Amino acid sequence: MCRLSVARGSAKVLPIQVADSVIGRWFRLEGSGHPREREGSRFMTDVRAGITTWAAMAYIISVNASIVSDSGGTCVCNGPNNCQTDETYLSCVQEVKQDLITSTAAISALASVLMGALANLPVGMAPGMGLNAYFTYSVVGYHGSGFITYREALAAVFLEGWVFFILSLLGLRQWLARIMPQSLVLAVGAGIGLYISFIGLTSGGLNVIGGNVTNLVGLGGCNPSDWVSTDLPYYCGTQVLRDPTVWLGIFTGGFLTVLLMMFRVKGSLLIGIFLTSIISWPRNTPVTYFPHTTSGEQMFAFFKQVVAWHPLQHIGNALDYNYGKGKVWYALITFLYVDILDTTGTLYSMAKFAGLRDPVTLDFENSTIAYCVDAVSISMGALVGTSPVTAFIESATGIAEGGKTGITAVVTGLLFFVSVFFAPIFASIPSWATGSALVIVGSLMIRNVRDINWDYIGDALPAFLTILFIPLSYNIAYGVIVGVCSYIIINGSVWIIRKASNERFSPPNYDASEPWVIPPGGIIPGWV
Protein backbone atom coordinates (compact mmCIF):
# COMPACT_ATOMS: atom_id res chain seq x y z
CA MET A 1 0.00 0.00 0.00
CA CYS A 2 2.87 2.39 0.85
CA ARG A 3 4.60 1.65 -2.44
CA LEU A 4 1.34 2.30 -4.33
CA SER A 5 0.88 5.63 -2.57
CA VAL A 6 4.45 6.67 -3.39
CA ALA A 7 3.94 5.75 -7.05
CA ARG A 8 0.73 7.75 -7.22
CA GLY A 9 2.41 10.67 -5.54
CA SER A 10 5.27 10.58 -8.02
CA ALA A 11 2.82 10.45 -10.92
CA LYS A 12 1.21 13.66 -9.65
CA VAL A 13 4.45 15.47 -8.81
CA LEU A 14 6.32 14.73 -12.08
CA PRO A 15 3.99 16.73 -14.38
CA ILE A 16 4.18 19.69 -12.01
CA GLN A 17 7.99 19.54 -11.92
CA VAL A 18 8.21 19.30 -15.71
CA ALA A 19 5.77 22.19 -16.18
CA ASP A 20 7.89 24.35 -13.88
CA SER A 21 11.12 23.49 -15.75
CA VAL A 22 12.79 24.87 -18.88
CA ILE A 23 11.01 22.16 -20.89
CA GLY A 24 7.63 23.22 -19.54
CA ARG A 25 8.21 26.87 -20.38
CA TRP A 26 9.55 26.06 -23.88
CA PHE A 27 6.51 23.94 -24.73
CA ARG A 28 4.14 26.27 -22.81
CA LEU A 29 2.67 23.57 -20.60
CA GLU A 30 -0.13 24.60 -18.28
CA GLY A 31 1.40 25.76 -15.02
CA SER A 32 4.71 26.78 -16.62
CA GLY A 33 4.10 30.49 -16.04
CA HIS A 34 4.49 31.27 -19.76
CA PRO A 35 2.24 34.21 -20.76
CA ARG A 36 0.73 32.09 -23.55
CA GLU A 37 0.65 28.71 -21.86
CA ARG A 38 -1.69 26.18 -23.44
CA GLU A 39 -4.69 25.47 -21.31
CA GLY A 40 -5.17 21.81 -20.48
CA SER A 41 -1.68 20.71 -21.63
CA ARG A 42 -0.02 18.12 -19.39
CA PHE A 43 3.35 16.44 -19.80
CA MET A 44 2.21 12.83 -19.33
CA THR A 45 -0.88 13.44 -21.45
CA ASP A 46 1.32 14.68 -24.30
CA VAL A 47 3.64 11.68 -23.91
CA ARG A 48 0.69 9.31 -24.15
CA ALA A 49 -0.61 11.26 -27.15
CA GLY A 50 2.79 10.91 -28.85
CA ILE A 51 2.72 7.13 -28.43
CA THR A 52 -0.81 7.07 -29.87
CA THR A 53 0.24 9.15 -32.89
CA TRP A 54 3.18 6.84 -33.57
CA ALA A 55 0.94 3.78 -33.39
CA ALA A 56 -1.39 5.37 -35.96
CA MET A 57 1.51 6.43 -38.24
CA ALA A 58 3.93 3.51 -37.95
CA TYR A 59 2.38 1.73 -40.92
CA ILE A 60 4.09 4.29 -43.18
CA ILE A 61 7.49 2.66 -42.49
CA SER A 62 6.62 -0.53 -44.34
CA VAL A 63 4.09 0.98 -46.76
CA ASN A 64 6.42 3.72 -47.99
CA ALA A 65 9.29 1.28 -48.41
CA SER A 66 7.05 -1.13 -50.31
CA ILE A 67 5.76 1.58 -52.66
CA VAL A 68 9.01 3.45 -53.38
CA SER A 69 11.00 0.23 -53.85
CA ASP A 70 8.66 -0.61 -56.75
CA SER A 71 10.55 2.09 -58.66
CA GLY A 72 13.64 -0.11 -58.49
CA GLY A 73 15.63 2.67 -56.85
CA THR A 74 19.17 2.76 -58.19
CA CYS A 75 19.01 -0.88 -59.36
CA VAL A 76 19.18 -1.68 -63.08
CA CYS A 77 17.60 -4.73 -64.72
CA ASN A 78 18.50 -6.36 -68.03
CA GLY A 79 15.72 -4.84 -70.12
CA PRO A 80 12.30 -3.57 -68.96
CA ASN A 81 10.55 -6.87 -69.71
CA ASN A 82 13.04 -8.97 -67.73
CA CYS A 83 12.82 -7.23 -64.36
CA GLN A 84 10.50 -9.86 -62.87
CA THR A 85 12.87 -12.72 -63.76
CA ASP A 86 16.27 -11.10 -63.14
CA GLU A 87 17.29 -12.55 -59.76
CA THR A 88 20.23 -10.14 -59.39
CA TYR A 89 17.93 -7.19 -59.96
CA LEU A 90 15.25 -8.51 -57.58
CA SER A 91 17.90 -9.04 -54.92
CA CYS A 92 19.06 -5.44 -55.37
CA VAL A 93 15.45 -4.18 -55.13
CA GLN A 94 15.03 -6.06 -51.85
CA GLU A 95 18.12 -4.31 -50.50
CA VAL A 96 16.63 -0.98 -51.65
CA LYS A 97 13.47 -1.81 -49.69
CA GLN A 98 15.59 -2.46 -46.61
CA ASP A 99 17.34 0.87 -47.18
CA LEU A 100 13.96 2.59 -47.42
CA ILE A 101 12.85 1.11 -44.09
CA THR A 102 15.82 2.86 -42.49
CA SER A 103 15.39 6.13 -44.39
CA THR A 104 11.61 6.32 -43.81
CA ALA A 105 11.93 5.75 -40.07
CA ALA A 106 14.92 8.10 -39.80
CA ILE A 107 13.43 11.04 -41.72
CA SER A 108 10.11 10.60 -39.88
CA ALA A 109 12.01 10.78 -36.59
CA LEU A 110 13.97 13.89 -37.59
CA ALA A 111 11.00 15.74 -39.07
CA SER A 112 8.64 14.95 -36.18
CA VAL A 113 11.17 16.01 -33.54
CA LEU A 114 11.88 19.27 -35.39
CA MET A 115 8.17 20.00 -35.79
CA GLY A 116 7.59 19.45 -32.09
CA ALA A 117 10.73 21.14 -30.74
CA LEU A 118 10.76 24.21 -33.02
CA ALA A 119 7.11 24.81 -34.03
CA ASN A 120 5.60 23.39 -30.80
CA LEU A 121 2.85 21.60 -32.72
CA PRO A 122 1.49 18.10 -31.91
CA VAL A 123 1.87 16.99 -35.52
CA GLY A 124 3.79 13.95 -36.75
CA MET A 125 5.74 14.05 -40.02
CA ALA A 126 6.63 11.30 -42.50
CA PRO A 127 6.85 10.64 -46.27
CA GLY A 128 3.37 11.42 -47.55
CA MET A 129 0.89 8.95 -48.99
CA GLY A 130 -0.11 9.84 -52.54
CA LEU A 131 3.09 11.71 -53.24
CA ASN A 132 5.11 8.53 -52.72
CA ALA A 133 2.83 6.75 -55.21
CA TYR A 134 3.14 9.60 -57.70
CA PHE A 135 6.92 9.59 -57.22
CA THR A 136 7.08 5.83 -57.88
CA TYR A 137 4.48 4.98 -60.47
CA SER A 138 4.15 8.22 -62.46
CA VAL A 139 7.55 9.92 -62.29
CA VAL A 140 10.15 7.13 -61.94
CA GLY A 141 7.77 4.42 -63.14
CA TYR A 142 7.36 0.79 -62.14
CA HIS A 143 10.89 -0.69 -62.23
CA GLY A 144 12.21 2.58 -63.66
CA SER A 145 9.90 2.78 -66.69
CA GLY A 146 8.96 6.44 -66.14
CA PHE A 147 10.11 9.67 -67.77
CA ILE A 148 13.01 10.44 -65.38
CA THR A 149 15.31 8.26 -63.31
CA TYR A 150 15.08 7.64 -59.58
CA ARG A 151 18.19 9.77 -59.03
CA GLU A 152 16.72 12.68 -61.05
CA ALA A 153 13.42 12.41 -59.15
CA LEU A 154 15.29 12.73 -55.84
CA ALA A 155 17.01 15.86 -57.17
CA ALA A 156 13.58 17.29 -58.06
CA VAL A 157 12.35 16.59 -54.51
CA PHE A 158 15.52 18.12 -53.03
CA LEU A 159 15.11 21.38 -54.94
CA GLU A 160 11.37 21.42 -54.25
CA GLY A 161 12.14 21.52 -50.53
CA TRP A 162 14.28 24.63 -50.89
CA VAL A 163 11.68 26.31 -53.11
CA PHE A 164 9.18 25.51 -50.36
CA PHE A 165 11.50 27.07 -47.81
CA ILE A 166 11.68 30.35 -49.72
CA LEU A 167 7.92 30.42 -50.33
CA SER A 168 7.32 29.77 -46.62
CA LEU A 169 9.61 32.60 -45.52
CA LEU A 170 7.84 35.00 -47.90
CA GLY A 171 4.40 33.80 -46.83
CA LEU A 172 3.54 32.86 -50.42
CA ARG A 173 2.92 29.21 -49.63
CA GLN A 174 -0.32 29.99 -47.79
CA TRP A 175 -1.38 32.30 -50.63
CA LEU A 176 -0.80 29.65 -53.31
CA ALA A 177 -2.89 27.19 -51.34
CA ARG A 178 -5.78 29.67 -51.11
CA ILE A 179 -5.77 30.76 -54.76
CA MET A 180 -7.05 27.39 -56.04
CA PRO A 181 -10.88 26.97 -56.05
CA GLN A 182 -11.93 25.15 -52.90
CA SER A 183 -13.85 22.39 -54.69
CA LEU A 184 -10.74 21.54 -56.73
CA VAL A 185 -8.61 21.44 -53.57
CA LEU A 186 -11.06 18.97 -52.01
CA ALA A 187 -11.19 16.98 -55.25
CA VAL A 188 -7.39 16.58 -55.35
CA GLY A 189 -7.43 15.05 -51.86
CA ALA A 190 -10.28 12.70 -52.79
CA GLY A 191 -8.59 11.73 -56.07
CA ILE A 192 -5.37 10.89 -54.24
CA GLY A 193 -7.45 8.69 -51.91
CA LEU A 194 -8.75 6.73 -54.91
CA TYR A 195 -5.24 6.65 -56.36
CA ILE A 196 -3.60 4.98 -53.37
CA SER A 197 -6.62 2.67 -52.96
CA PHE A 198 -6.17 1.54 -56.56
CA ILE A 199 -2.49 0.88 -55.85
CA GLY A 200 -3.52 -1.13 -52.79
CA LEU A 201 -5.77 -3.29 -54.95
CA THR A 202 -3.22 -3.88 -57.74
CA SER A 203 0.33 -5.20 -57.83
CA GLY A 204 1.44 -2.66 -55.20
CA GLY A 205 -0.74 -4.41 -52.63
CA LEU A 206 -3.38 -7.13 -52.68
CA ASN A 207 -3.10 -7.85 -56.43
CA VAL A 208 -6.87 -8.39 -56.48
CA ILE A 209 -7.14 -6.11 -59.53
CA GLY A 210 -4.78 -7.35 -62.21
CA GLY A 211 -6.44 -6.67 -65.53
CA ASN A 212 -6.38 -8.94 -68.55
CA VAL A 213 -5.10 -8.89 -72.10
CA THR A 214 -8.22 -7.22 -73.57
CA ASN A 215 -9.49 -4.84 -70.89
CA LEU A 216 -7.55 -2.13 -69.08
CA VAL A 217 -8.50 -3.54 -65.69
CA GLY A 218 -10.08 -6.73 -64.41
CA LEU A 219 -9.92 -9.23 -61.59
CA GLY A 220 -6.48 -10.49 -60.64
CA GLY A 221 -5.32 -12.60 -57.75
CA CYS A 222 -4.17 -15.57 -59.81
CA ASN A 223 -1.23 -17.72 -58.85
CA PRO A 224 2.12 -16.80 -60.46
CA SER A 225 1.90 -19.95 -62.61
CA ASP A 226 -1.26 -18.53 -64.23
CA TRP A 227 0.23 -15.17 -65.19
CA VAL A 228 -0.23 -14.27 -68.84
CA SER A 229 3.13 -13.65 -70.55
CA THR A 230 2.91 -9.92 -71.31
CA ASP A 231 4.86 -6.80 -70.41
CA LEU A 232 2.80 -6.73 -67.20
CA PRO A 233 3.20 -10.24 -65.75
CA TYR A 234 0.53 -9.74 -63.10
CA TYR A 235 -2.15 -9.93 -65.83
CA CYS A 236 -4.26 -13.01 -65.21
CA GLY A 237 -6.05 -15.37 -67.54
CA THR A 238 -9.20 -17.06 -66.27
CA GLN A 239 -7.85 -18.45 -63.00
CA VAL A 240 -8.55 -15.33 -60.95
CA LEU A 241 -8.63 -14.95 -57.16
CA ARG A 242 -6.74 -18.23 -56.62
CA ASP A 243 -3.74 -16.79 -54.77
CA PRO A 244 -4.24 -17.43 -51.01
CA THR A 245 -2.26 -14.30 -50.11
CA VAL A 246 -5.07 -12.24 -51.68
CA TRP A 247 -7.64 -13.65 -49.28
CA LEU A 248 -5.29 -13.39 -46.31
CA GLY A 249 -4.79 -9.68 -47.06
CA ILE A 250 -8.52 -9.06 -47.58
CA PHE A 251 -9.78 -10.74 -44.42
CA THR A 252 -6.94 -10.31 -41.91
CA GLY A 253 -5.49 -7.02 -43.14
CA GLY A 254 -8.81 -5.62 -44.31
CA PHE A 255 -12.00 -6.68 -42.53
CA LEU A 256 -10.32 -7.31 -39.18
CA THR A 257 -8.64 -3.89 -39.31
CA VAL A 258 -11.95 -2.20 -40.10
CA LEU A 259 -13.61 -3.94 -37.14
CA LEU A 260 -10.81 -2.75 -34.85
CA MET A 261 -11.25 0.80 -36.18
CA MET A 262 -15.01 0.65 -35.61
CA PHE A 263 -14.37 -0.17 -31.96
CA ARG A 264 -11.70 2.60 -31.84
CA VAL A 265 -8.80 0.30 -31.03
CA LYS A 266 -5.63 2.41 -31.14
CA GLY A 267 -3.14 1.44 -33.82
CA SER A 268 -5.71 -0.61 -35.77
CA LEU A 269 -3.85 -0.29 -39.08
CA LEU A 270 -0.58 -1.36 -37.49
CA ILE A 271 -2.25 -4.35 -35.78
CA GLY A 272 -3.80 -5.52 -39.06
CA ILE A 273 -0.52 -5.16 -40.95
CA PHE A 274 1.53 -7.03 -38.35
CA LEU A 275 -1.02 -9.82 -37.84
CA THR A 276 -1.11 -10.49 -41.59
CA SER A 277 2.70 -10.40 -41.67
CA ILE A 278 3.07 -12.82 -38.75
CA ILE A 279 0.85 -15.32 -40.54
CA SER A 280 3.02 -14.88 -43.66
CA TRP A 281 6.39 -15.35 -41.96
CA PRO A 282 6.49 -19.16 -41.43
CA ARG A 283 8.08 -20.93 -44.38
CA ASN A 284 6.59 -23.88 -46.29
CA THR A 285 3.07 -22.42 -46.19
CA PRO A 286 0.94 -21.26 -49.17
CA VAL A 287 1.14 -17.64 -47.96
CA THR A 288 4.81 -17.46 -46.98
CA TYR A 289 6.75 -14.28 -47.68
CA PHE A 290 10.03 -16.22 -47.75
CA PRO A 291 9.94 -18.67 -50.68
CA HIS A 292 12.90 -20.97 -51.30
CA THR A 293 14.47 -18.75 -53.95
CA THR A 294 17.61 -16.62 -54.00
CA SER A 295 15.74 -13.45 -53.02
CA GLY A 296 13.60 -15.40 -50.51
CA GLU A 297 16.68 -16.79 -48.77
CA GLN A 298 18.19 -13.29 -48.65
CA MET A 299 15.03 -11.82 -47.13
CA PHE A 300 14.74 -14.60 -44.55
CA ALA A 301 18.36 -14.20 -43.48
CA PHE A 302 17.79 -10.48 -42.89
CA PHE A 303 14.49 -11.14 -41.09
CA LYS A 304 16.14 -13.50 -38.57
CA GLN A 305 18.34 -10.67 -37.29
CA VAL A 306 15.19 -9.00 -35.76
CA VAL A 307 17.17 -6.05 -34.38
CA ALA A 308 19.94 -4.62 -36.54
CA TRP A 309 21.37 -1.38 -37.82
CA HIS A 310 20.95 -1.37 -41.58
CA PRO A 311 23.04 1.37 -43.25
CA LEU A 312 21.96 2.84 -46.59
CA GLN A 313 23.66 0.83 -49.33
CA HIS A 314 21.97 2.06 -52.51
CA ILE A 315 19.94 5.24 -51.92
CA GLY A 316 22.01 7.50 -49.69
CA ASN A 317 22.93 10.78 -51.41
CA ALA A 318 21.99 9.25 -54.77
CA LEU A 319 20.79 12.50 -56.38
CA ASP A 320 21.42 13.32 -60.04
CA TYR A 321 21.27 17.12 -60.30
CA ASN A 322 20.17 17.08 -63.93
CA TYR A 323 18.21 20.33 -63.76
CA GLY A 324 18.79 20.99 -67.45
CA LYS A 325 16.21 18.28 -68.23
CA GLY A 326 12.74 19.75 -68.70
CA LYS A 327 10.90 16.72 -67.31
CA VAL A 328 12.71 17.13 -63.98
CA TRP A 329 11.07 20.56 -63.65
CA TYR A 330 7.70 19.08 -64.63
CA ALA A 331 8.01 16.63 -61.73
CA LEU A 332 9.26 19.37 -59.38
CA ILE A 333 6.31 21.69 -60.10
CA THR A 334 3.82 18.88 -59.54
CA PHE A 335 5.48 17.86 -56.27
CA LEU A 336 5.44 21.51 -55.27
CA TYR A 337 1.77 22.24 -55.80
CA VAL A 338 0.40 18.92 -54.53
CA ASP A 339 2.57 19.21 -51.42
CA ILE A 340 1.37 22.79 -50.85
CA LEU A 341 -2.24 21.60 -50.87
CA ASP A 342 -1.50 18.51 -48.77
CA THR A 343 0.69 19.93 -46.02
CA THR A 344 -1.03 23.30 -45.73
CA GLY A 345 -4.45 21.69 -45.48
CA THR A 346 -3.27 19.13 -42.93
CA LEU A 347 -1.48 21.67 -40.73
CA TYR A 348 -4.46 24.01 -40.72
CA SER A 349 -6.93 21.24 -39.90
CA MET A 350 -4.71 19.80 -37.14
CA ALA A 351 -4.15 23.26 -35.62
CA LYS A 352 -7.90 23.84 -35.64
CA PHE A 353 -8.56 20.42 -34.10
CA ALA A 354 -6.04 21.15 -31.33
CA GLY A 355 -7.59 24.58 -30.69
CA LEU A 356 -4.44 26.42 -31.82
CA ARG A 357 -5.93 28.31 -34.77
CA ASP A 358 -6.69 32.01 -34.35
CA PRO A 359 -10.37 32.72 -35.20
CA VAL A 360 -9.56 36.20 -36.57
CA THR A 361 -6.50 35.67 -38.79
CA LEU A 362 -7.32 31.97 -39.42
CA ASP A 363 -3.60 31.32 -38.94
CA PHE A 364 -1.93 29.30 -36.19
CA GLU A 365 1.03 29.83 -33.92
CA ASN A 366 4.47 29.35 -35.42
CA SER A 367 3.00 28.62 -38.87
CA THR A 368 6.05 30.02 -40.69
CA ILE A 369 8.37 27.85 -38.57
CA ALA A 370 6.15 24.81 -39.22
CA TYR A 371 6.26 25.36 -42.98
CA CYS A 372 10.03 25.85 -42.91
CA VAL A 373 10.49 22.63 -40.92
CA ASP A 374 8.39 20.80 -43.48
CA ALA A 375 10.43 22.30 -46.34
CA VAL A 376 13.80 21.36 -44.82
CA SER A 377 12.50 17.85 -44.07
CA ILE A 378 11.54 17.39 -47.73
CA SER A 379 15.10 18.15 -48.85
CA MET A 380 16.65 16.01 -46.11
CA GLY A 381 14.35 13.15 -47.12
CA ALA A 382 15.62 13.35 -50.70
CA LEU A 383 19.18 12.96 -49.42
CA VAL A 384 18.23 9.64 -47.79
CA GLY A 385 16.35 8.47 -50.87
CA THR A 386 12.67 8.95 -50.13
CA SER A 387 9.70 10.88 -51.53
CA PRO A 388 8.43 14.22 -50.09
CA VAL A 389 7.78 14.45 -46.36
CA THR A 390 4.53 15.98 -45.13
CA ALA A 391 2.34 16.43 -42.05
CA PHE A 392 0.18 13.39 -41.28
CA ILE A 393 -3.56 13.53 -40.74
CA GLU A 394 -3.10 10.59 -38.33
CA SER A 395 -1.81 13.20 -35.87
CA ALA A 396 -5.50 13.71 -35.06
CA THR A 397 -5.40 10.48 -33.02
CA GLY A 398 -2.82 11.94 -30.66
CA ILE A 399 -4.60 15.29 -30.48
CA ALA A 400 -7.84 13.47 -29.63
CA GLU A 401 -5.87 11.76 -26.86
CA GLY A 402 -5.15 15.20 -25.35
CA GLY A 403 -1.92 16.23 -27.11
CA LYS A 404 -1.62 20.00 -27.27
CA THR A 405 2.11 20.77 -27.46
CA GLY A 406 5.19 19.78 -29.41
CA ILE A 407 6.03 17.15 -26.79
CA THR A 408 3.54 14.91 -28.61
CA ALA A 409 5.48 15.20 -31.90
CA VAL A 410 8.85 14.79 -30.13
CA VAL A 411 7.72 11.52 -28.53
CA THR A 412 6.41 10.34 -31.91
CA GLY A 413 9.78 11.16 -33.47
CA LEU A 414 11.72 9.33 -30.77
CA LEU A 415 9.64 6.18 -31.34
CA PHE A 416 10.34 6.43 -35.07
CA PHE A 417 14.04 6.61 -34.18
CA VAL A 418 13.75 3.39 -32.16
CA SER A 419 12.00 1.82 -35.17
CA VAL A 420 15.16 2.35 -37.25
CA PHE A 421 16.79 -0.52 -35.38
CA PHE A 422 13.90 -2.90 -36.15
CA ALA A 423 14.47 -2.68 -39.90
CA PRO A 424 14.53 -6.51 -40.32
CA ILE A 425 10.95 -6.69 -39.01
CA PHE A 426 9.55 -3.77 -41.02
CA ALA A 427 11.36 -4.95 -44.16
CA SER A 428 9.65 -8.33 -43.89
CA ILE A 429 6.09 -7.02 -44.19
CA PRO A 430 4.60 -8.30 -47.48
CA SER A 431 2.64 -6.19 -49.94
CA TRP A 432 -0.60 -8.10 -49.25
CA ALA A 433 -0.30 -6.98 -45.61
CA THR A 434 -0.17 -3.31 -46.58
CA GLY A 435 -2.61 -3.44 -49.51
CA SER A 436 -5.73 -3.30 -47.35
CA ALA A 437 -4.21 -0.47 -45.31
CA LEU A 438 -3.84 1.57 -48.51
CA VAL A 439 -7.51 0.99 -49.36
CA ILE A 440 -8.61 1.98 -45.85
CA VAL A 441 -6.48 5.15 -45.85
CA GLY A 442 -7.93 6.00 -49.27
CA SER A 443 -11.46 5.62 -47.90
CA LEU A 444 -10.60 8.13 -45.18
CA MET A 445 -9.20 10.62 -47.71
CA ILE A 446 -12.20 10.52 -50.05
CA ARG A 447 -14.50 11.94 -47.40
CA ASN A 448 -13.57 15.36 -48.83
CA VAL A 449 -16.22 14.87 -51.53
CA ARG A 450 -18.90 15.75 -48.98
CA ASP A 451 -17.81 19.39 -49.01
CA ILE A 452 -17.49 19.81 -52.80
CA ASN A 453 -20.07 22.18 -54.29
CA TRP A 454 -22.18 19.67 -56.24
CA ASP A 455 -25.04 22.16 -56.67
CA TYR A 456 -23.36 24.08 -59.51
CA ILE A 457 -22.01 22.15 -62.49
CA GLY A 458 -19.26 24.74 -63.08
CA ASP A 459 -17.73 23.64 -59.76
CA ALA A 460 -18.91 20.02 -59.74
CA LEU A 461 -17.69 18.85 -63.17
CA PRO A 462 -14.05 20.06 -62.83
CA ALA A 463 -13.94 18.50 -59.36
CA PHE A 464 -15.37 15.23 -60.70
CA LEU A 465 -12.89 15.14 -63.59
CA THR A 466 -10.03 15.70 -61.14
CA ILE A 467 -11.20 12.80 -58.97
CA LEU A 468 -11.66 10.59 -62.04
CA PHE A 469 -8.41 11.33 -63.84
CA ILE A 470 -6.00 10.99 -60.90
CA PRO A 471 -6.48 7.22 -60.43
CA LEU A 472 -7.32 6.35 -64.05
CA SER A 473 -4.32 8.21 -65.49
CA TYR A 474 -2.17 6.91 -62.58
CA ASN A 475 -0.91 10.47 -62.28
CA ILE A 476 -1.80 13.22 -59.80
CA ALA A 477 -0.46 15.92 -62.12
CA TYR A 478 -2.76 14.93 -64.99
CA GLY A 479 -5.77 15.04 -62.69
CA VAL A 480 -4.87 18.52 -61.42
CA ILE A 481 -4.23 19.77 -64.98
CA VAL A 482 -7.57 18.40 -66.25
CA GLY A 483 -9.44 19.90 -63.30
CA VAL A 484 -7.85 23.34 -63.54
CA CYS A 485 -8.20 23.56 -67.34
CA SER A 486 -11.84 22.44 -67.33
CA TYR A 487 -12.59 24.93 -64.53
CA ILE A 488 -11.01 27.79 -66.48
CA ILE A 489 -12.77 26.87 -69.76
CA ILE A 490 -16.23 26.38 -68.22
CA ASN A 491 -16.26 29.26 -65.78
CA GLY A 492 -14.24 31.53 -68.07
CA SER A 493 -16.85 31.06 -70.80
CA VAL A 494 -19.66 31.88 -68.37
CA TRP A 495 -17.80 34.99 -67.22
CA ILE A 496 -17.33 36.19 -70.82
CA ILE A 497 -21.01 35.59 -71.67
CA ARG A 498 -22.18 37.44 -68.56
CA LYS A 499 -19.87 40.38 -69.19
CA ALA A 500 -20.75 40.60 -72.90
CA SER A 501 -24.48 40.56 -72.15
CA ASN A 502 -24.21 42.92 -69.19
CA GLU A 503 -25.21 39.97 -66.98
CA ARG A 504 -28.52 39.41 -68.78
CA PHE A 505 -27.46 35.85 -69.69
CA SER A 506 -26.46 33.82 -66.66
CA PRO A 507 -26.91 30.17 -65.69
CA PRO A 508 -30.22 29.81 -63.77
CA ASN A 509 -28.46 28.63 -60.61
CA TYR A 510 -25.41 30.88 -60.91
CA ASP A 511 -25.99 32.05 -57.34
CA ALA A 512 -25.10 28.53 -56.19
CA SER A 513 -21.60 28.81 -57.66
CA GLU A 514 -18.62 28.84 -55.35
CA PRO A 515 -17.12 32.34 -55.06
CA TRP A 516 -13.54 32.59 -56.27
CA VAL A 517 -11.27 35.59 -55.87
CA ILE A 518 -7.53 36.16 -55.90
CA PRO A 519 -6.59 36.40 -52.20
CA PRO A 520 -5.87 40.06 -51.37
CA GLY A 521 -2.33 40.92 -50.36
CA GLY A 522 -1.27 37.34 -50.91
CA ILE A 523 0.40 36.89 -47.53
CA ILE A 524 -0.78 35.87 -44.07
CA PRO A 525 2.24 36.19 -41.80
CA GLY A 526 2.75 33.39 -39.32
CA TRP A 527 3.27 33.97 -35.64
CA VAL A 528 6.96 33.44 -35.05
From TrEMBL:
One of its GO terms (molecular function) is purine nucleobase transmembrane transporter activity. It comes from the Eukaryota. GO terms for cellular component: endomembrane system; plasma membrane. Pfam families: Xan_ur_permease. Keywords: Membrane, Transmembrane, Transmembrane helix, Transport. It is a multi-pass membrane protein. Coiled coil: none annotated. It is found in: Endomembrane system. GO terms for biological process: adenine transport; guanine transport. The chain crosses the membrane at residues 100-119, 153-172, 184-209, 245-263, 328-348, 368-393, 405-423, 476-497. InterPro entries: Azg-like (IPR045018), NCS2 (IPR006043). Belongs to the nucleobase:cation symporter-2 (NCS2) (TC 2.A.40) family. Azg-like subfamily. This is Xanthine/uracil permease. It comes from Pisolithus tinctorius Marx 270.
